[in-house]
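INFO worker-7 received task bundle
INFO bundle size: 2
INFO processing item 0
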Amino acid sequence: MKLLHKLSYSENWNIGFCNLTPSELLVKKSLPQITWLKHPYHDRWFADPFIYKVTDDEIIVFVEECPMENPKGILCELVIDRKTIRLKERYELLSLDTHLSYPIYKIINGKTFVYPENGVSGMLNAYEYDEKHHRLINPRAILNEAVADATIVNIAGNNIMTATIFPDTLKVAHLYHAVDTLNIYTRISKKPIVDNLQYARNGGDYFHVNKCTYRPAQDCVKDYGSGLSIMKVKYEANVYSETLQFSLYPKSYRYHRGLHTLNFHKNLCVIDGYGYSYPTIGRCIALLKNLLRKIK
């Protein structure tokens, strides 16, 4: 039974890259061919990627790392060969007693601050990134609520944050604001800004094209993280509104079950993909299970 579970393991994530700008995505409304990360690990997966730095030779990415046997996420920094998309170095940025994911960051006055999801702790902390030692240090609380995938954006001089709240982290999103980027955020209204499984939970950092703001959001209608919705955002006179532009769904054979994070850095796009560890065997076992359910 353990071997069967391993062969059909249903939560195997990986990160992948393509040459794509935000403006190109809005025109094409689809992703080009993805090159998936090559790494030596068979006991863990990587997801929630945020590109930190790109050189001619390397890509540096902050990710969630999660062991398959004991699924509690930690945060890691991956150094990837840009030409081969092969993992060169791995550094553990932060590990706590509770699950960590979504290592989104802001650069303020030359310093990098990562504010990852740690909803089980009941609060949201921002950590200073120590690039020399590859660690996250000096946590400061910026929200005293249990939230998932909180994402900060500045629109017309307004520091706002969107997030879903535990325990309903898939369907209902709320809006927060603060005086400065890393001050304490407070909820603007008890009324949610989104009440929809198709685009409530954030799926990456906001991006801007032609003075317009866009938000990647997770499409959880079919399943958690099954796709992404690209939302066009407006924030005027303390009123937040957005409209769905289009949706993205996985095309990869191996990672065909979902994608739930999309981010850009200059001309490079990173996503994550969800699939079986052994795609052909996993698909066959899943099909057999569905047939058995129908017979019963």
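INFO item 0 finished
INFO processing item 1
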Amino acid sequence: MPLHAINPKTWDGNLRQQVKLEHGMGWSISHQAGRIKLTRRNPADGSRSSVILDLPWGPPTTAREVLEAIATLRQRIDTRGISLRAAHELDATAATINGTVDWSAIQARFLDSLKSRKGTTLSDVRRRVERTLQTLATKPVPHDGKELMHLYEQQHLSELAPGSAGRRRNLQDVARFLTFAVEECDAPQQWLPLKGQKRRELVGAADGRDATLTPPIKPEQLGALLDALEADGRHDLRLAVGLVGLYGLRPAELATLRIEGDRLLVGQVKRNSADMRKSAQEQARLKERRVLPLDLPTHPGLGAQLAAQWASGLVKLPPQIATAVAAGDFKLTGDALRQYLNRYQPWKALVAATPGLTPYSLRHGFAWRAHKAYARSLSVRDAAALMGHDPVTHSKFYGRWTDEQGLLDAVAGLTGSAASGVLTPP
């Protein structure tokens, strides 16, 4: 209808005139089934598309409500490059007109979109999203996605090593949540997350000279921990700690142990995308490795003793670990060991004395002993095979270990005489 033909004295005539004046000749409204039908003519090819607005035709609908609804759709079309129908289908309840975002509503929708994921993965994502909402409510309040991710890193990831998988997964899930908020829930564009190099910088570099390496538990520390567990009657936790520490297992590998004759075998917990595409039967036949203990000089034969206890069932793993093992849940197995240790006072004392010590330090202690604790050291190739990774990975992560005492011991072992590290005065 030509603009001059609109009768401004009627409700619809007045509204049509305002639509044309504010949004141009390509936009028009009409009545359909008691609702307002909005039509847009595409200026590129002249094609038309229509949607039904959730507004009744005629009073009490006001012209301002209609004009604001059209303005919102236009903004989505212009900023996202989408069609009128796609813009209309976006859930506009996440952000109000003044830009205030209902993050709780977005959280519910985001988690609902992931409900097909397995329990442990969804649990991790839920925890990270809850932390994101905590950061949004903590001063200083972030004003956009970039600020939010930096504050999240400061508040929740300070204890994770630069470049670690934990930092990467946390920031990846925060970014997915923010992207969902903008693209699916109509949050303002300012909440888009860091991308590319900027996000990689926030994750950090695992291979850099300043990257933090989880320290190994030293032989005397492991021996003292095992003795304390025995004295406290914690034979179940002693079994778990001893198997991981003496055999160099990943904590999650407690879920894959198997005895065959006199051999202790460990299955794979680190599987690539190609492995995960295999059937359950094929995955069950993934290559196992034989593991052997590196016993402590103060506890000879303890590795074989613990393996026999586990195989016979005379000593059982702690209940939460046993439950995770029975479910075949690798992540929960490792998490349960961490929780048990974090509640155990002698372990807390070790962590206080050696900052950065984690349950993975039990595995790292195996690598440390392999190269530094005995009169002769294992080759990198043999140590890597026992630990279940390749020699390059072994050298990458364990080749940088050195401390002052380690250097003194290495020189003494090489020269046959003690090295004080101090210049002898002339």
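INFO item 1 finished
INFO post-check item 1: The first strand starts at residue 27 and ends at 32.
INFO post-check item 1: The CA atoms of residues 9 and 15 lie 10 Å apart.
INFO worker-7 idle
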